[in-house]
Amino acid sequence: MRLYSLSVLYKGDAKAVLLKAAYDVSSFSFFQRSSVQEFMTFTSQLIVERSSKGSRASVKEQEYLCHVYVRNDSLAGVVIADSEYPSRVAFTLLEKVLDEFSKQVDRIDWPVGSPDTIQFAGLDGHLSRYQNPREADPMTKVQAELDETKIILHNTMESLLERGEKLDDLVSKSEVLGIQSKAFYKTARKQNSCCAIM
Questions:
Q1: Is there a contact between 9 and 51 (Cβ–Cβ < 8 Å)?
Q2: Which residues form the Longin domain (predicted)?
Q3: Span 93-128, pLDDT tens digits
Q4: What is the pLDDT of residue 128?
Q5: Which end of the chain, N or C, is surrounded by fewer C-beta atoms within 10 Å?
Q6: Distance (Å, rounded) from C-alpha 44 to C-alpha 52?
């Protein structure tokens, strides 16, 4: 799971204006980085231009997902991530960034702003913090822990069932155990299974 780009844009009538952006292109070769960054900027602007105000969307392009959120006040955010990155976490990040941006940057500057003129320093920090969605988002962290616990519990139950089935087979095939011993085992097994369910 990886985030590549986090951008804040203004959706104008004719086109989208890039206000501020942060990129992590370290996974690309050195000679491709500037081209990849330019393409991410182009893609972000295009997606915002084609999205309506008050909308959220995820657009798939090859193995990447572009998550866009355009607010009713024309402020927009775009996250470009790999396809494994959780959409819920991406939209949480966008909402948080746009709220911070709108509080720190005057609305008058949005239509005429550019990355050089807008003073907002939070994007790089958010981009690096949200690289690991488990650590950045408490809900994702709890869900991952629940999934791990469920897998362990499931494996434990399977191993117990296999053991129990083998023991049942041994008891039923046994010639040494008497009828009373087999009846005692079956009764005890039923009692134990009732206790295990509760």
A1: no
A2: 8-118
A3: 888 888 888 888 888 888 888 888 888 888 888 888
A4: 84
A5: C
A6: 14
Q: Which region, left, alpha or beta, applies to residue 89 given φ > 0 means left and ψ of -120 to 50 means alpha?
A: alpha
What type of residue sits at position 146?
L
pTM of the predicted model over 0.90: no
- Return the CATH fold of 3-161: Beta-Lactamase (3.30.450)
Evaluate whether 80 touches 2 at the Cβ level (below 8 Å). Answer: no
CB 55 within 8 A of CB 43: no
Neighbours of 68 (CB within 10 A): 26
- Domain ranges in the chain are 3-161
The first and second tokens of residue 198, run together, are: 């509760």
Q: Sign of the C-alpha dihedral, residues 75, 39, 90, 100? A: negative
Q: Which amino acid is at 30?
A: F
